Amino acid sequence: MNTTIENNKDNQIEQIEKKVKIQKPKKADFRMHAHVNPLNETLFPYPLNYNQVDWSSHYPKKFGKDPLKLYLNTLEYPITYDDQVKPEYSESIVDFLDIGCGFGGLCFALSENYPDKYTFGMEIRGKVVNFVGEKIRALRDEGQAHDVSVIRTNTMRHLPQYFRKNSLEKIFICFPDPHFKKKNFRRRIVNPGLLSEYAYLLKPSGRIYCITDVEELHNWHVQHLEKHKMFKRVQDVEQDSAAKLIWNSTEEGQKVERNKGSKFIIVCEKV
C-alpha cells in the first residue's frame, strides 16, 4: 500500500515538473556597460584551436544531448577548453555568424527564417550572453531555437580559433561600436586585418553584412571592403533576404527606427 502511494506521489511530481515552463529572461536584469575594450587581455577561457571547440554543447539536440544545459563561457555557465574534443563534435556545423550579437535579435530572426541553418552569436559582454543563452533555453523548452547558440568571447582576438577555413556562409556585423576617436580606430571590428580573417573563414561566394547608423563608420566599411582583394560589393542588396532581416531585427536597429534615424548597409561577397 505504501509503495503504491509513493509511486503515485512520484508520478504526480514528475507530471508537475513536466508542466513547469522555463520563463524567458528580462533584459532589465541583464543590463551592463554598452562597450568593452576588445584590445584588453582576455580574462575568460578560449580554445587554442578549433579542435578544442565542442559543438555538441552548443547544439545539443543535433548530437542527442540535453538541450536545456547551457555552455556560454560565462561565470554562470562555464566552458573549459582543457581537453581535445571527439572529432565528430569538433567539426563546426555553423552556417551564420553574428559578431557582437548583443541581445540576440538577429540570431533569433535568422533561426526563424532559416530553420535549416545553424546560427552562432559571439558577444564579449557576459551578462548579455547570459540573457541570450537563457532565452535560447526557454525557447528550446518550447521546441524552438535548437539551431541557434551563443558564446562569450573576444572575436577580435580569437575568431580563427573557433572555425575552420571556408566554413561559414554568412557573417553579420550589426551596429558595431564606431570608436570615433582616431586613436581608437584599431578597435573597429572592420579593418584590413580582420577582413582577411573573415575572408579566410567564409566559403567561396560567402557574404559579409555590415550595417550602422553612423555614416562616417559606413564610409569606413565601404572604403575597406571595396579595397580588399577578397571581397566584391553586392549591388542588388534588396534581393538578399538576410539583408532585409538585419534592418530591424537587432535591438539597436529597432532603436534607430524609433528615433527615425538613418541606416547604412553594405553587403560584400567573397571572391
From TrEMBL:
Q: What is its EC number?
A: 2.1.1.33
Primary location recorded for the protein, binned into one broad class: nucleus
Return the Gene3D superfamilies for the record: Vaccinia Virus protein VP39
Entry GO terms, CC = nucleus; tRNA methyltransferase complex
Give the reactions, separated by semicolons, that this protein catalyses.
guanosine(46) in tRNA + S-adenosyl-L-methionine = N(7)-methylguanosine(46) in tRNA + S-adenosyl-L-homocysteine
The record describes the protein's role as: Catalyzes the formation of N(7)-methylguanine at position 46 (m7G46) in tRNA.
Report the sequence similarity comment from the record.
Belongs to the class I-like SAM-binding methyltransferase superfamily. TrmB family.
- The molecule here is called tRNA (guanine-N(7)-)-methyltransferase
Instruction: Provide the species name.
Output: Paramecium tetraurelia
